[in-house]
Amino acid sequence: MKHAMPLRTVAAGVALLLATAASAQEFTFDASEFEKKPFEFSGYIELKQQHMRLNQDSALYKLGYYNQPRDSIDQTTLTLKPEGKLRSGALTLNARAHLEGDWATQQFDRELRFDEFYGSYKPDPGLTLDAGKIALKWGKGYAWTTVGFVERQKDPNDPDLARQGFTMLTADFIRNFDGALRTVAFTPVLLPVSADVNHDFGGTGHLNAAAKLYLLYNDTDIDIMFLSNGSRSRRIGVDFSRNLGSNLEVHGEWARIDDTQRQVVNAAGAVTTLRQNASSSYLLGTRYLTENDATWILEYYRNGAGYDENELQSFYSYVDTAYAQFAGSGNSTLLQRAASLSRSGVSRPNPGRDYLYLRVSQKEPFDILYFTPAITLIANANDRSYSVAPEVLYTGFNNVELRARAFFLGGGKYTEFGERVNSRRLEFQARLYF
């Protein structure tokens, strides 16, 4: 995180250069072009159409559709994401809203919320105070993060998607130096949790304290993070990122989380809560840009608190037992119990231990302007199940982005991706920016 040069310094430097050249040529200079506008408004509206082919033999399908069987789902989603800034001196009001309507098979849902809404006070270039609903982004990982202690989980299928924040009080203290250590930044965070505020962060009745220390040392970005014990258990983490050349970057993360637990069930339905005094998770990755503008992103993710292969297999086997009872007697008690257990862990994105992520995108192949194809692979390295997603992106229309993707899930019985609800998904997305 490099500290930006103040705008007044930039403007003065440009003016000096123009004055020096005045004897040879006449120039005009408008300093207002470098000033921040008092009000900014932007965003996009998106229309997404999806067709999902359901895997009727999978465990998660049986949990979700045992009483309403179907072989596919068509879903239309209309999303509006406006954002704006209102500035007055050292004060800025920031807002980013999310308005969504979903039309699925025989069903309509809507969601209206602010992803961010906070005030910012910057009396000095080296000090910023923020209060409100804020979406922090900690960590250097692309598809996952192990150190996002005060943020919502990423979706590895859409890691660039803006996420909803939490209500908090935070600050940034930044100092620049000469020498090997060029920048130091400290970010303290206070995050309250009650029945009405941040209730989905964890246990209520806590004022959670977190902090991040950033160092730019010898052209290496380093972060050290901490979250106190409270709504979530105590955790510490560190990450780094470094460019090894103009086209090669490497990054990594490591986190240690105290007192982790997960519920496991055997094929007979006996539930056990497994607790660890502490677990460690880490991520290693690289990003490489080739001479012909192809971008390769590769990451390995170790989820220390995740389910191992045998634990996942036992759960899927239990679902089969529960479904067999329902099919024979109409009694759904065991299925409902299994569904409750799945929501606590197994049905969440990437509940396992070891994952690989590979994404390759090619900008304008064969000189086809505004066209970018890509392919993404996410694999469970333990059971060898996977998701493969080819896609194409077209940006040839002004302020319009068109994207088409297909997801193909593969894996044997009792594997993570083999037991997902859908076996494939087709998606078309049109986004208009304003």
Describe this structure in words.
The chain is mainly beta and 434 residues long. The chain folds into two domains: 1-35, no CATH class; 36-433, Porin, CATH 2.40.160.10. The protein has four helices and 18 strands. It has an 18-stranded antiparallel beta barrel. A hairpin with a 2-residue loop joins β3 (91-104) and β4. α3 (309-329) packs antiparallel against α4. The protein is globular, with a radius of gyration of 25 Å. The two termini are 28 Å apart.
Pattern of helices and strands? HEHEEEEEEEEEEEEHHEEEEE
Q: In CATH terms, what is the fold-level topology of the largest domain?
A: Porin
How many β-strand runs?
A: 18
Number of domains: 2
**What is the end-to-end distance?**
28 Å
Strand content: over 45%
Provide the CATH top-level class of the largest domain.
Mainly Beta
Average pLDDT figure:
91
Residue share in helix: 10-25%
Uncertain spans: 1-29
Oligomer: single chain
Radius of gyration: 25 Å
Total of DSSP H or I helical runs spanning 4+ residues:
4
